[in-house]
Predict the structure of Phosphate ABC transporter ATP-binding protein.
Amino acid sequence: MSIMNIENFSFKYAGANDESLKNINLPIKKNKITALIGPSGCGKSTLLRSLNRINDLYPNNVYDGRLMLLNKHTNKMENILDIKKENDFIKLRQRVGMIFQKPTPFPMSIFDNVAYGLKIAGVKNKTELEDKVEAALKGSALWDEVSNRLDKSAMGLSGGQQQRLCIARAVAVKPDLLLFDEPTSALDPISTAAIEELITRLRNEVSIAIVTHNMQQASRISDYTAFMYLGNLVEYNHTEDIFINPKEKKTEDYITGRFG
Ligand SMILES: Nc1ncnc2c1ncn2[C@@H]1O[C@H](COP(=O)(O)OP(=O)(O)OP(=O)(O)O)[C@@H](O)[C@H]1O
């Protein structure tokens, strides 16, 4: 079952001559991890950033096709390209959260970082807020490290801790889909391992799409892998199949390090 279906999806940046994404068809499966891999400039980030319309923070991009997101309440798929109202974009980004390459904590306390999204989502009661912040920090494997300094600035945390805080912030509002854009490329190996373990565990509660340049990472943590090249989706399959038995020559060349 899919949380999102990308259907005949093409995308052109405002003012660009060529499409950055060409007729992409791809499911994002529920409670699974889907990795997007491919050489630099193939469109991985553009695709990921389309899935919660973050690309549209800059106007006049040209879309074609459909990005169908499952509405949990009605059990129907809805095209997020139909969204027009500012308020609906805010709701979309609560349902489809995003973690960036560089940790992006807000310059405020650890507690307030996680409470921020919850407050926007309408949580007002202090006890409820505290409970939800604690649950999110526990869920992001950060609670033990920060429980005695929740009122301290998030900027004092290490890079790996900041990234887990950003994950806690995203997880707190109970998203349906989390998008990770190279979430460990700025981190050391130990922090990377912690984040990978966390992402693997999060799959139980949220569907995940992750862009990574790290082939070992894709093979370690993802259930499905999509290989992209020059704005096209070349091959999509179970991760094992992509890495052990790719069907397309291009995929094989890429995963064996022959280009990219
Ligand atoms: N804001 C933009 N305006 C115009 N073209 C852009 C913009 N951002 C990216 N592109 C182009 O879109 C294409 C896809 O870029 P994208 O960043 O999605 O690739 P990527 O696979 O994520 O690359 P990388 O692995 O290097 O991050 C590239 O040709 C890039 O030059």
About this structure: Residues 13, 16, 20, 38, 40-46 surround adenosine-5'-triphosphate (CB under 6 Å).
